[in-house]
Amino acid sequence: MILPVVTYGHPVLRAKGARVQQVTPAIKRLVADMYETMHAAHGIGLAAQQVAQTVQVALFDLRDVKDRPSTLEVDGHPADVEAFMPLVLINPELQPLGDPVTGPEGCLSFPEIFADITRLGMVDVAALDQEGRPVTFRCGGLLSRAIQHETDHLHGILFIDRMSRKVKEELQPELDRLQAETKAALKRAERQVSQTG
Ligand code: ZN
Question: What is the whole-number distance in angstroms between the Cα of residue 146 and the centre of ligand 1?
Answer without folding.
Answer: 9
